[in-house]
Amino acid sequence: MQRSIYDEDHEAFRESVREFVERTLAPRAEEMIREKTIPRDIWLKAGEQGFFGLSIPEEYGGAGVDDYRFNAVLGEEVAKFTNAVASCFGIHADITAPYLVHLGTEEQKQRWLPDVAAGRKIMAIGMTEPSGGSDLAALKTTAVREGDEWVINGSKTFITNGYQCDLAVVAVRTDPTKGAKGISLFVLEAGTPGFTKGNKLDKVGQEESDTAELFFENVRVGDDHLLGAPGMGFIEMMKHLPQERLGDAVGCLANARQILGETLQYTKDRKAFGQPIGSFQHNKFKLAEMVTKAEVTQAFLDQCVVSHAKGELTAVDAAKAKWWAAEMQSQILDECVQLHGGYGFMNEYRVARAWRDARVHKIWAGSNEIMKELIGRDLGL
Predict the structure, then answer these.
(1) pLDDT per residue over 291-333, tens digit each?
(2) Distance in angstroms (rounded) separating the CA atoms of residues 274 and 293
(3) Closest listed residue to residue 308, CA positions, set 292, 320, 323
(4) Which residues are 155's β-sheet partners?
(5) Residue among 247, 256, 378, 255 at smallest CA distance from 308
(6) Closest by CA position to 182, among listed 217, 141, 219, 149
(7) d(CA 301, CA 71)
């Protein structure tokens, strides 16, 4: 089905992203997997292309583009290469940077945003803690006021870009008596005394993504590191989560459709019992089902992208997009592995790696169960 949400400018931008993927990312795919990280020079090259500054105003080194469709194009094209790199880039530019843009003081924006847009400073966001995943209101990391300083203690886990990050937006509890209304946000800089990083976590998939724990032991910062008003952190996270969930959904589907296309070609080329395996009725029907599921999902996601570009996407619709796209990705890729037979279980095949990478999408950005809970509440249940 023909997609209609993008115009010539979006498609021209898409071509520039594709060229970056082919020339810069693809030749170093094995290196990134082996080192479990995206090398710094790749971050700088992406910054030079303007990929990290789409939503950052021009006065702070960005493009100042007020059109989320460009963000979606970037997410789609990088996710076709690998969900891991798309996740890292998305956390940096599409998820964390907007907190600085929307909540930062003039001094904070001038201090950090130019380097963020250029890829010189890598960003992470510290929400998840060892004691709780999707329950952000129950976080235990604290910031206690002592004179003119805040003293931060606690830890975060499963932090994408955590090992490399130069800046981390961290959610902490500043008032233990106020529940969710006692949570605030701070920007912490790598190298600050007491702020340390754990080793890269050994994950099932998304090996290119450096994921780590962050530790805070008597980290002392002033009000110039407080992001937004005290006690407004939880509310701000809730405001920003729909974009995170939509971006995750966009990447899930783009990756699934890419691998599905590669699998379709495989079933045409691979022969068994004297004919292409795709011509067997069972396999033909499976492919017909997957293509239909992908296109139906695409229609809904495209509508969500347009809605978000207009500032109209609701948290509930973002939740629907996230859980459904993550579920469809896992279903489609599992079937693609099956169609590859034994080769589908070999790491040298993209389908195997994509299948492993996909599993976490039903967990992070709010588990799919939490997404259904949000939808259910909206139904008055």
Answers:
(1) 999 999 999 999 999 999 999 999 999 999 999 999 999 999 9
(2) 30
(3) 320
(4) 215
(5) 247
(6) 141
(7) 14
The span from the CA of 174 to the CA of 234, in Å, is 11
Cα–Cα distance measured from residue 173 to residue 23, given in angstroms and rounded to the nearest whole number = 44
DSSP-derived 3-state class of residue 60: helix
Tell me which residue has tokens 């070609």. Answer: 265
Neighbours of 340 (CB within 10 A): 22
The catalytic position among 244, 289, 348, 369 is 244
Tell me if residue 11 is catalytic. Answer: no
Q: How many Cα atoms are found within 13 Å in the side-chain-facing hemisphere of 181?
A: 2
Which residues lie below 8 Å from residue 162, measured CB to CB, with a gap of 6+? 124, 126, 156, 168, 197, 198, 210, 211, 212, 213, 214
Residue 140 one-letter amino acid: K
Nearest Cα neighbor of 94 from 212, 246, 208 is 246
- Asked whether the whole model's pTM tops 0.85, one would answer yes
Measure the CA angle with vertex 64, ends 228 and 211; round to 5°. 60
* Calpha distance 24→82 (Å, rounded): 13
Q: DSSP state, 91? A: I
Cα pseudo-dihedral 341, 344, 349, 353, rounded to 10: 170
pLDDT in tens, 31-47: 999 999 999 999 999 99
Separation between Cα atoms, residue 317 and residue 157, nearest integer Å = 27
Which value, to the nearest 10 degrees, does the dihedral of the CA atoms of residues 279, 282, 284, 288 take? 180
Alpha-carbon span 185 to 187, nearest angstrom: 7
Are 188 and 195 contacting, i.e. CB atoms less than 8 angstroms apart?
yes
DSSP assignment string, 215-236: EEEEEEE-GGGEESSTT-HHHH
